[in-house]
Structures are given as structure tokens and as C-alpha cells.
Specification:
Blueprint lengths: L1 H18 L8 H15 L3 E2 L2 E2 L3 H20 L7 H24 L1 H4 L7 E2 L17 E2 L9 H24 L5 H21 L9 H25 L10 H10 L7 H25 L12 H21 L9 H6 L13 H8 L2 H6 L1 H11 L5 H4 L8 H17 L9 H23 L5 H10 L10 H13 L3 H25 L6 H11 L4 H9 L11
Parallel strand pairs: 3-4
Antiparallel strand pairs: 1-2
Helix pairs in contact: 1-3, 2-3, 2-4, 3-4, 4-23, 6-8, 7-8, 7-20, 10-18, 17-18, 17-21, 18-19, 18-20, 18-21, 19-20, 21-23
């Protein structure tokens, strides 16, 4: 509360400092203070108990944002360490994200899913995927039976929903048809989750919580009715266009590529994955086919064996320093048996050999590290805003699937390599579709057809919910659908340049050393990791500032 009172004074003082060209604010500690005040500012003020996303409030606050951004630009980082300059870039990228949301993306105006408040599970990346409002109810953070304080927190969380939903009806004036129609599903899903939640044994006999949930359900259902009625009049495109997409990639997510570059890269990776798959199938043609788990007992046995295999491989083959929290983090997400007719793309592969998917679960090692070994930099310690972490977290998780294959993880099961290439092809196909959707050259459904048709073995045709979920997310969050492959490419390039640097120093490239350094840098864009690990700003040359 005190920070909100002091913020206007802070802004006036530093606005005057900038105008006077005061150069005394050039220490790293000044950046950290600016970061704190930027993050405080980024959270919108409260109106009727909910974050205020009204156009009037955004315009009223815009001059304050400009002061913060000007102060950042005035900081002279020339004599700073690379590590501290990277932190400056992170704050710069976040402010660019705010600017872009204000000018172009406007999720509070164009995207009904922005008003989804109820989340039942933690994301496997540092923050929820896609634009998310500032007042979510994270059901997964509550342990039942609730303590007195936790019950108070839950009731407070739930009380925000009616006010936020009423505000949504005022703010959602956009004309992005596909975002609108697909977003209704998210709000309908929220109603279903709330109805199931109030039937939990730990909840159903608590009159206060049930009453609060019922009020939230009523408000959610009312918003759905309004969205459906308004949706009949929505006719506009949902993609942001090539020019905006490129600006966002380069200036917010710090991906040194254009829309056209990403199309070329994803086409190349899609072709490469299909080719590698067919050659693997040829090589393995005399080997027996993989057999999927056909019962809960068979699945649990396979999952346990796969978890042990992966952890032992990482440790014994010296891929990365295996911390004590790696295996517990992985074992929380081993999955469960699902009948064949209900398996989506990822579940199909997981029931043949879970290790390709568990390799992608490198995510959970990274989140455990955030929880248990927080980064020394306050700027890197928590999740970066606006999914700026996507090239790092999704890119690394995707890259290690194939890297672990190349390092020998499947020497005991050559057929499992086929799953890895199927997964790469799927990531390339869905990302390619998302590019065309953002260019408004394809509808979301047409983008999904690329996603479905170019995934090998028809594995994306078995269950449509995943297809809709992924293409909707990528339309909501520019750059996310491609980040799996572009981040993979940028990480591979970082390894190449790091190895080349080591070779020029007459030193060996040590795999474990590389991954340990990468992990220590934190969940930041790969382009910045490349800079910190090699000293080269090659991936940032496109920036003019």
C-alpha cells in the first residue's frame, strides 16, 4: 500500500532527474530499484475489488510508464559486466512488452480468455502460458483442509471474479472473431471447474466457500451468455500481422528472427524431422514394434523404469549435474494410464516410452531450481512477464529431447528414437500453422490442419481438444507456438559458438559444464544466454538502441 502512495512522488522526482540529465543513476543498484518500481507499476490499480483494465485508466497511467522507460534508457551500462547488462535488457524487454500490449495485443480488449480466473494446476514454465490477468485464483496452491488464513485467502480470491467479469463486459470491445469464439470455451471451462470444486469433500460442507463459489459460477455463466451474444457480431481478424509479429519477436522476446525467418526455419525443421523419422524406421525395420502399456499396472511399471533410466543417464553420462530435487520433481509428473481411445498426441508416445516426454519435463527441474535455488539477481529470480522466457524454457525442453537421443539415451531401445522425431515434427507443424494464422493468411482451423496433417502417424487426429487448445494459445500469445523450434535452434547455435570458443582456447567442450552454466544463468531468452556464455552479442545485432 505504501509503495502505491509513494509511486507518484518517485515518478516526479525521476522525471525531473531525467530532464536535468542527471547522470548519477548509473549503478546496477539503480536498475534493481527501477525494476522493483516497474513491477509495482505494471500491476494495474484496483477498481471495485478487481484489477482495472479500462481504457481510461491505461491512458491515465501512460505518462508514468514513459517516465519509467525514459529512466531506464538514461542508465549508462557501458562499463557494466555482461551479466548486469543482460539484466538491463530484461527490464527493457518487459517494458517493450507492456508497450506492445498497450498498442497492439490489447488482451483485455480483444481476448475473452484473458478473463479466465481459475487455474487448477501449475504451468510447466515459469508462469502461465499466454496473456493472464493479475487476479487469478490458483487452486493448486491451496492445501486442504484449509487453515484459517488460507480460507480467508481463497474467499478473497473468489470474491474478485464477479467484479472482474462485469468489467470484462465493458472492456471487451475488440473485433477479433477467432479469439472471441475460442475464448468462450475457456470461460465455460471455468464454470465447469468451479462446479466440480464445490463438490470436493473438503469444500462441500463449508457454507461460506460454497456460497462464494456459487456467486463466482453465476458471474461466470453470465459472462458466457454475454460473450455468445456479442460473438455473433465479431467479424475481424485475430492475427497481429507480419510486421507486428516481427517487432514483438525481436523487441520483447529477444528472438533475432523475422516472421519470414521463422517460416523458413520451421519448414526446414519439419522436413528434417520427417526425414530423420523415415530413416530411423528404415534402420529399425527388422526390430519389433514398440508395445504400448495396456493397463494401469503396465503403465506405472513403465513410467517408473523410464524415470530411473532418464535420471541415471543424465548423471552417469555426465550430461548435467543432477541435483537431489531432480527425481522428485520428475516423479510428480509421471502421468497415469489412459485407454487408447482417449489418448491425445503426447499420451500416445508416453504409453510406448515415456522418456521422450520426460526429457521435455526438463521444465520441472528448472521450476524446482527456481523454488529451491532462487537466482541471485532479483530481476531473474521470478518469472519474466509476457512469456519472455519461452525461447529458453520451451526451446531447451524441446532441444534436449533430441540432444539426449544423440547422447545415447535410447541405445537400449532404438525404436524410441522414432517418437522423438515425431514430437519434433509436431512442434514444427503446429508452429508453422500459428505463423500463418498471425499473418491472417489462414484461419485458426486452417492452421490446425497443418498441425494435424503434418504430424506423423496421424497422432494429432486422435483427440481434437489438444489441437484447439494449442492453436488458440498460439494465436493469443505471439511467438509461443514457434518458440519450441526457434528456441531449440538458438540453443543449438549457442552450443556451437560456445564449443568453438572453447576450441579457440585449446579447451575441451564439456557437456555437463555447458548445461550447468546454462542453468545458472536462469530462465532468460536464449539470445541473452548466448551473450552471457560467449561474450558475443551476435543475436542482438538487429537492435538499434
Amino acid at each position: 500500500m505504501k509503495r502505491h502512495i509513494l509511486l507518484p512522488i518517485f515518478l516526479i522526482v525521476f522525471s525531473l532527474s531525467i530532464e536535468a540529465q542527471n547522470t548519477s543513476f548509473n549503478k546496477y543498484e539503480d536498475l534493481v530499484q527501477l525494476f522493483k518500481d516497474w513491477r509495482s507499476f505494471e500491476k494495474p490499480p484496483i477498481k471495485n475489488g478487481a484489477p482495472d483494465y479500462s481504457a481510461e485508466t491505461f491512458e491515465k497511467r501512460w505518462p508514468k510508464f514513459k517516465v519509467l522507460r525514459n529512466w531506464l534508457k538514461e542508465i549508462d551500462t557501458v562499463n557494466w559486466s555482461t551479466e548486469n547488462q543482460v539484466d538491463w535488457m530484461l527490464v527493457w524487454a518487459e517494458m517493450n512488452g507492456y508497450d506492445f500490449n498497450h498498442r497492439v495485443l490489447k488482451p483485455w480488449v480483444r481476448d475473452p480468455a484473458y478473463y479466465k480466473s481459475i487455474w487448477t494446476s501449475r504451468s510447466d514454465v515459469p508462469a502461465h502460458e499466454g496473456p493472464t490477468n493479475h487476479a487469478t485464483t490458483e487452486l493448486w496452491t491451496y492445501a486442504f483442509p484449509l487453515s484459517k488464513d488460507e480460507k480467508k485467502r481463497l474467499l478473497s480470491d473468489l470474491a474478485i471474479i464477479p467484479s472482474l467479469n462485469e468489467q470484462a463486459k465493458m472492456n471487451l470491445t475488440g473485433n477479433a472473431r477467432e479469439l472471441w469464439i475460442a475464448g468462450i470455451r475457456d470461460i465455460e471451462g471455468q464454470s465447469t471447474v468451479l462446479r466440480n470444486f464445490k463438490e470436493k469433500e473438503e469444500v462441500k460442507n463449508d457454507k461460506k466457500i460454497v456460497a462464494a463459489v456459487n456467486t463466482a459460477i453465476e458471474a461466470t455463466d453470465d459472462l458466457v451468455t454475454w460473450l455468445k451474444a456479442e460473438g455473433e457480431n465479431k467479424t475481424g481478424p485475430s492475427g497481429i500481422g507480419k510486421e507486428n509479429y516481427t517487432w514483438y519477436l525481436q523487441n520483447v522476446h529477444l528472438v533475432p528472427l523475422t516472421w519470414d525467418d521463422e517460416v523458413l526455419l520451421l519448414k526446414r525443421e519439419l522436413s528434417r524431422a520427417w526425414t530423420a523419422l523415415k530413416l530411423e524406421e528404415h534402420r529399425n525395420r527388422k526390430l519389433p514394434e514398440l508395445v504400448d502399456a495396456d493397463s494401469p499396472e503396465a503403465y506405472d511399471k513403465m513410467a517408473d523404469r523410464a524415470a530411473k533410466s532418464l535420471i541415471n543417464f543424465l548423471d552417469q553420462q555426465e550430461i548435467v549435474t543432477v541435483k537431489p530435487y531432480f527425481e522428485p520433481a520428475l516423479r510428480e509428473h509421471l502421468g497415469e494410464y489412459i485407454p487408447r481411445e482417449k489418448r491425445n498426441f503426447f499420451y500416445i508416445g508416453e504409453h510406448y516410452d515415456p522418456r521422450p516426454l520426460y526429457s521435455h519435463f526438463y521444465h520441472w527441474f528448472e521450476l524446482a531450481r527456481m523454488d529451491l535455488e532462487p537466482h541471485k539477481s532479483e530481476i531473474r529470480r521470478g518469472p519474466l512477464l509476457y512469456n519472455i522466457f519461452d525461447s529458453r524454457n520451451e526451446g531447451t525442453a524441446t532441444a534436449v529431447e533430441e540432444m539426449f537421443l544423440q547422447a545415447g539415451l535410447y541405445d537400449d531401445s532404438p525404436r524410441s528414437k522414432e517418437i522423438v522425431y515425431i514430437m519434433i515434427a509436431q512442434r514444427a507443424a503446429r508452429g508453422l500453422g500459428s505463423l500463418y494464422a498471425h499473418a491472417n493468411e489462414m484461419t485458426m482451423e486452417e492452421a490446425g490442419s497443418i498441425h494435424s496433417e503434418y504430424t506423423p502417424r496421424g497422432w494429432m487426429k486422435t483427440e481434437k481438444e489438444l489441437l484447439i487448445f494449442e492453436q488458440h494459445l498460439y494465436l493469443r500469445q505471439p511467438g509461443y507456438g514457434t518458440s519450441y523450434i526457434t528456441g531449440k535452434y538458438l540453443l543449438e547455435n549457442t552450443i556451437a559458438e560456445y564449443a568453438k570458443m572453447k576450441e579457440s582456447q585449446n579447451k575441451d567442450f564439456v557437456t555437463r559444464e555447458f548445461f550447468d552454466i546454462l542453468n545458472s544463468i536462469g530462465n532468460i531468452p536464449i539470445s541473452l544466454g548466448h551473450w552471457q556464455m560467449t561474450g558475443s552479442r551476435a543475436h542482438l545485432e538487429y537492435l538499434k538502441n
